[in-house]
Design a protein that fits this description.
28 strands; Rossmann fold; Dna Ligase, domain 1; ATP-binding; metal-binding; five-stranded antiparallel β-sheet; alpha+beta; 21% helix; Cathepsin D, subunit A, domain 1; seven-stranded mixed β-sheet
């Protein structure tokens, strides 16, 4: 926004004024106007540079209200410079410099701002002479010549909804930096101005202590991330969820939590959660003793039935037993291998088709129908199934959303069967692939995910009423 000029009319300032920095999400600040100071300074803490060397950025937090540490606004901006600044007490400090639009009264103009901790100062901002244009007149004996604002605005929900987008530092936990899903997330994040880093989950290690839990990577402590997107492979679920827990311990926002990932990977636990939330699913049974085989088969309505390993993925470890004798043989074989498995009713009317619903932030953002190859009952794309866009019913949409919420997953692929009794949830996937569903549905799933991340990164309004 260009400077607004009132030709011929001087713009009068007192020694203290209210102003706003809208590009930083700071709608009200009380500032001291100091013509004796050359540079302007804004109170900031947790100051951290990030981003590529060619286009460095800085992120920081601000307590805009003096004496109120419970009100925090997170900010980020491109770095304009870094220079030494000497304060009024003679101390020299190397500070990051940013440029931002300043609004005061009916005027707005860009200024350079240095970042420093002014936590002990009565004014969260100092406006130096570099920020004062030629037609500004400062009256050192007057206060608030321009319209006054109020700190009450920080208690308004509008602070959250109208906060400007800021650059985020986001980590993707993935062992496959070049696969479609990871590349799509990196490309979408960078297109929005965020810094997205792919972190190999198995190369992370953790320092556990009460005062400062840390995550390390390749010999260095990892920086503070605004958000983490876990893409934890089934083969590393245990260690991967431990890394996610460590990020949760540090206070980092994780798109999917460790508990939800762990529960979704264990088929038995997952079905127990679905049952507890009264979410429709095929009748499922589990037993440890070989003496219970016949009863186990009977519980799911007899053959044909599905025998499924507890940690199966992408259709692997899933067997269709078409007769009772075949079911007994498969169950016996799995027990001989000491494998944990469950037995499930086979929904014949599904006819080798299922529905994959992609749920982001409690909403179904895309859905596809997956159809198995002729002679195959598994419709997984990794097993050669074909995918096409599909219109789902209100009941199917509700079932998918309820299933994702039951696991507290902000990103989930929910697989449904269309049965005569209504939708049946087969599985809830905490690391769904994006390639098949993006290409088949034409939807930008990565964009929906970043919308959800950005929504969670907006500043929350304070609940206490504040006064000016």
């Amino acid at each position: 926004m260009d400077k607004i000029s009132n030709a011929g009319e001087p713009f009068r300032l007192g020694w203290e004024e209210w102003l706003s920095l809208p590009e930083l999400g700071l709608p009200a600040l009380k500032a001291k106007i100091d013509t004796g100071a050359r540079t302007s300074a804004l109170h900031a803490f947790d100051i951290e540079p990030f981003g590529p060397a060619a286009k460095p950025k800085v992120r920081f937090a601000v307590h805009p209200i003096p004496g109120r540490t419970d009100v925090t606004i997170a900010c980020s901006a491109p770095i304009t410079d870094r220079r030494e600044v000497t304060s009024s007490n003679g101390e020299t400090e190397l500070r990051y410099v940013i440029t931002s639009q300043l609004t005061m009264g009916d005027r707005s103009w860009p200024i350079e701002i240095t970042l420093t901790d002014r936590g002990t100062m009565a004014y969260r901002m100092l406006l130096g002479r570099q920020a004062l244009t030629e037609d500004l007149i400062v009256s050192p004996t007057d206060s608030f010549c321009q319209p006054q604002l109020s700190y009450d605005i920080y208690a308004s929900p509008s602070v959250r909804t109208s906060a400007p987008p800021r650059s985020l530092r986001i980590a993707i936990l993935s062992r496959e930096a070049n696969n479609y899903s990871t590349r799509r997330l990196v490309d979408e994040g960078e297109a929005r101005g965020h810094v997205v880093e792919v972190i190999d989950t198995l190369r992370c290690y953790m320092a556990l202590n009460a005062s400062s839990p840390e995550v390390h990577y390749d010999g260095k402590r990892l920086p503070r991330y605004d958000a983490v997107v876990p893409r934890i492979g089934a083969s590393i679920t245990s260690y991967g969820t431990a890394v996610v827990r460590q990020f949760e311990t540090t206070g980092t926002y994780c798109v999917n939590g460790s508990d939800g990932i762990t529960a979704s990977r264990d088929k038995l636990h997952a079905h127990q959660i679905l049952a507890r939330h009264r979410i429709g699913m095929p009748v499922t049974a589990f037993a440890a003793s070989p003496k219970d085989t016949n009863n186990l088969i009977g519980l799911v309505g007899g053959a044909p039935l599905i025998v499924k390993l507890l940690e199966s993925t992408q259709g692997k470890g899933v067997v269709l037993a078409e007769t009772k004798k075949a079911a007994e043989s498969v169950i016996s074989a799995f027990r001989g291998l000491r494998a944990s498995f469950l037995v499930q009713h086979f929904v014949k009317e599904a006819a080798g088709e299922d529905i994959r619903c992609l749920v982001v932030g409690g909403k179904v953002v895309a859905a596809i129908k997956r159809t198995a190859q002729p002679g195959e009952f598994r419709s997984n794309l990794h097993q050669g199934g074909a995918a096409s866009a599909v219109k789902i019913t209100k009941e199917e949409r509700a079932a998918a959303v309820r299933a994702a919420r039951a696991f507290r997953l902000n990103l989930a692929g929910v697989d449904l069967l269309r049965s005569e009794e209504g939708p049946k949830v087969l599985e809830v996937n905490s690391s769904p692939g994006l390639e098949g569903i993006e290409r088949s549905s034409g939807k930008n799933i990565a964009a929906h995910l970043f919308d959800e991340i950005e929504k969670n990164m907006r500043p929350a309004p304070t609940r206490k009423r504040v006064t000016s």
